[in-house]
């Protein structure tokens, strides 16, 4: 009887497992089928108004579209970078208009809210829709219903549709410029250091800045170095200047920085070999190499298959300065002279230094600020004897005496070129 009982239990267990597997597979199949494109109209025209706004609110005012991108790394999908209310937005649809057969297809979207929301009700999201077969749609509309009036919906151009050859090696993404930004001298120094290190393009998500800063940005735009992405996020949401939620009624942290960084990665995926995610007061300084190109060649050779390289952030307090490189003509320019700040704070016990990144954009799916959330391949922590982030700002350890700081003059290796280039910019911008 006992043996028979054991056999019965075993048979029942096998039966339950089999039925569970069948139900799960059926559910997954139905889920996959529910996301496949379906024809809802034939013989129609794509009449929706094409929008070129950086941030577009949908009618629900809970969903904000930044830009759609073609992504065929796993399957043929349109990946829309957006901002959504993490709890209120449960269902969205993509409407594709296929020419020349004039058929409109609708796909149910997968809404993937990024995990690094830091408590805010709104967060960066990927709105992912499977594209129709035998169709390479150029535009897409997003709606809460599969039967929305497509003529009334805004249409967004799907970027990255055509393969391109790399036009630059390094693009720096800066997000977001806000708070009437006016640190003119340090900004110019950072820009010129970027160029010395091998950067050809700097993309800035600009919320606002001072009139004087506008003048500097115009110079770099005309030069071809800077691309400005308007970032009027506070026209749509209550923004916080903090990275974590403070229970203060704000909607999203740090002016939507994470959304902007993700958009910048996809925006430059096909035109830049590497993308650098950092702030305007941060410079990745190589210690063993003269520039970023030779540094990254070495790092890639040592770490085949890696697509994310993380560099430690080190604070050089702007409150501690030297008399060296006190250049009188710079004293009338607002901002910090980084050449005078060559003392860095020591590591703190039990505190991990935050990191910023140089990435291969084609290997990243989602990013946060200090690490990637999803990527193909490995992430590599770059040792401090190879490179570190020079970050000149207000101190984090303000009570430390000067003798407890570490004198680090790595930046001075570039002083001759940096001074000459900064003087040229100041002369040409009449600052």
From TrEMBL:
Any Pfam family the entry gives = Glyco_transf_92
User: Among its keywords, does the record have Lipid metabolism?
Assistant: no
For whether the record's keyword set contains Glycosyltransferase, the answer is yes
Q: Which UniProt keywords apply?
A: Glycosyltransferase, Membrane, Transferase, Transmembrane, Transmembrane helix
Q: What is its EC number?
A: 2.4.1.-
This entry's Gene Ontology molecular function terms read: glycosyltransferase activity
Signal peptide (UniProt feature, chain positions): none
- According to its UniProt record, where is this protein mainly located? membrane
Regarding the membrane, this protein is recorded as: Single-pass membrane protein
Transmembrane ranges? 9-28
Q: Which GO terms describe its cellular component?
A: cytoplasm; membrane
Where is the protein localized? Answer: Membrane
Q: In which family does this protein belong, per the annotation?
A: Belongs to the glycosyltransferase 92 family.
The name under which this protein is listed is: Glycosyltransferase family 92 protein
